[in-house]
Amino acid sequence: MTHRVDNIEELKPIIASNRLPIKLERIDGNWQILSGTGGLVTALAPVLRHNDGVWVGWPGAPVNEELERLLHSSAADIGYQLKIVDLTEKDIERFYRGFSNEALWPLFHDLIDHCSFDIKHWETYQQVNYKFAKAIADTASGSNLIWVQDYHLIMTGYFLKEMGFTDNTAFFLHIPFPPQDIFMRLPWRQEILEAMLCYRLIGFQTERDRRNFVRCVKALLPEAQVNQRRKYQIIKYNNQLSRIGAFPISIDYKSFNDDARSKDVNDAAWYFHERFPDQKIIVGIDRLDYTKGIPHRLLAFENCLERYPELRRKITLVEVVVPSRTEVPEYQMMKKQIDEMVGRINGRFTEGGWVPIHYIFGTLDRSELLGCYKASEIALITPLKDGMNLVAKEYCASHVDDLGVLILSEFAGAASRLDCGAILVNPYNVIEVADAIFRAYIMDQSEQKNRMRKMRSEIRRNNVFRWVEQFVATFELGDENGYGKADLPVSTSTPQQ
Ligand code: GDG
Q1: pLDDT in tens, 3-16
Q2: How confident is the model at residue 79 (pLDDT cuts 50, 70, 90)?
Q3: Residue range 77-105: average pLDDT?
Q4: Ligand 1: centre distance to CA 44 (Å)
Q5: Which atom in ligand 1 lies closest to the alpha carbon of residue 414?
Q6: Whose CA is nearest to atom 13 of ligand 1?
Q7: Reduced to 3 states, what is the DSSP secondary structure of residue 28?
């Protein structure tokens, strides 16, 4: 079913996320604003630009007058307003590094061994979420669509509800929602679930995540009433109705498809091919993170070279690792582990000028990124778990010749839609991934085209703009679907103007 949302302008969206969609850099002592990278920015920036919206978030540096002025004046260039939430060092340590990234991030990716639960972090998480709610309330009226993003800001819904915003709040979780037996470990599991149910619409990446959430609600909040509709559920809890749906996020397909034909991208792709003559290039691109399964992937590549010696000198793995959270000791150790593995595998197999792994620890500019996608005959995307994984979709969108093979982890949200053409693998199974590399290497062009066309057509149809349309259309569904203002409890306080 195609949803058309003609009045998203009237909803004047307010997006809130932990980080504003910008990158700040000090150049010659002055702040410069650069546009940010990452899945969230890639997905939402075009939406606000087209709909005159406001983005609320932390700018990534201590706020002072100079920065405030610069952010204010950059609105025209960026195409929408930025509203700053100022965070202290303690906030960043306990809310961001602590609760968000040492408790929720690993827990929600099922990696319980990486979790650390600390009451001080939890307290600061709530205080910072209150700050966000306050900043939103200062900007919003009852008619804005307040759309809160991701795991850093789950409690913001709870505080917004306390401030009187009951029927215009929505939440989207970009990371997975874990199964019940994993979620149950969280000391503040009840509070987190109750806060999520303060939002009128709660969006997950996949049906799997939505099912996990509903099971947790049933187990931990037995008084919640869960009603099944055709495509979503409605939960009534604590005098509030919430609609729960799966909305797989996507990319701006057209921009990748168009840019992939540009001269800059073709030059960049040519450059990659020139560096690895007579090779099939396998690309892996990830942020430095233990969820991305980079060591497992390197072992699988090694296993492939070991068991399929005919591929030696014929394939090169271009592994791009984008620096992330580099101040955290666990991430520094991960980087060291990857460096050592690359060194060991290259030491073991390098021969006659051929080096099996070309390792880039850094960020590519957009033309290089698309050039790298385009030049690569195979993409090896094997996270241990991932909310969606936009790189998988970008790789396909950049393959304008319909060639290329996507090897994709079955635990990436992207697998729920790209199973039509990808080779799905269990990233923990080194031998299965190694076999998939071999299968991709020998795959003939007609099979590649058949698979790639299906994936490209899926991404073209279900692009990021449709994602927004579907999310907003579901937010707006009226009484005929058993949910509407008439069903909602009357708010006792007036939203702040
Ligand atoms: C979260 C969830 C979910 C990467 N390297 C370079 C570069 N990138 C860009 C890619 C892509 C983005 O970063 C990464 O997107 P992901 O989806 O892989 O992941 P997260 O940032 O972890 O985001 C994730 C996402 O939210 C959206 O909901 O899919 O599961 O964890 O867009 O292009 N961009 C440039 N150079 C690089 O080297 N320019």
Answers
A1: 344 556 567 789 99
A2: confident
A3: 93
A4: 12
A5: 29
A6: 38
A7: coil
Listed by start position, the domains of the chain span: 6-249+465-487, 254-461
Q: Mind giving me the DSSP string for 131-190?
A: HHHHHHHHH--TTS-EEEESGGGTTHHHHHHHTT--SSEEEE--S----HHHHTT-TTHH
Residues 202/196, Cβ–Cβ less than 8 Å: yes
Question: Could you tell me the distance, in angstroms and rounded to a whole number, from the CA of residue 357 to the centre of ligand 1?
Answer: 22
Dist. CA 296 → ligand 1 center (Å): 20
pLDDT of res. 251: 92
pTM: predicted TM-score of the whole model, two decimal places: 0.93
Query: How far is the centre of ligand 1, averaged over its atoms, from the C-alpha of 465 (Å)?
Result: 17
pLDDT of residue 4: 42
Nearest one of 145, 160, 163, 129 to 57, comparing CA atoms: 129
Q: How confident is the model at residue 52, as a pLDDT? A: 73
- Position 495 scores a pLDDT of 34
Banded model confidence at residue 1, pLDDT cuts 50, 70, 90? very low
**Measuring from atom 20 of ligand 1, which residue has the nearest CA?**
39
Active-site annotation, residues: 174, 386
The amino acid at 155: M
Helix (H) or strand (E) holding 25, with range, is strand 22-27
From 107, 318, 389, the mutation candidate for ligand 1 (largest count of ligand atoms within 8 A of CB) is 389
Q: Are 474 and 243 in contact (CB under 8 A)?
A: yes
Domain 254-461 in the same topology as domain 6-249+465-487: yes
pLDDT digits 0-9 by tens, 128-164 = 999 999 999 999 877 788 999 999 999 999 999 999 9
- Rounded CA-CA distance 180/364 in Å is 38
For the CA of 392, the closest atom of ligand 1 is 18
Number of the ligand 1 atom closest to the C-alpha atom of 413: 30
Indicate which residue's Cα is closest to atom 8 of ligand 1.
38
**384 and 300 Cβ atoms separated by less than 8 Å:** no
Q: Which two tokens stand for residue 482?
A: 């058993």
Report the nearest-CA residue for atom 23 of ligand 1.
39
Q: Which residues line ligand 1 (CB under 6 A)?
A: 37-40, 42-43, 174-175, 249, 285, 287, 320, 322, 363-364, 366, 369, 386-391, 394
> How is domain 254-461 classified at the architecture level of CATH?
3-Layer(aba) Sandwich (3.40)
CATH number of 6-249+465-487: 3.40.50.2000
Q: 59: CA distance to ligand 1 center in Å?
A: 19
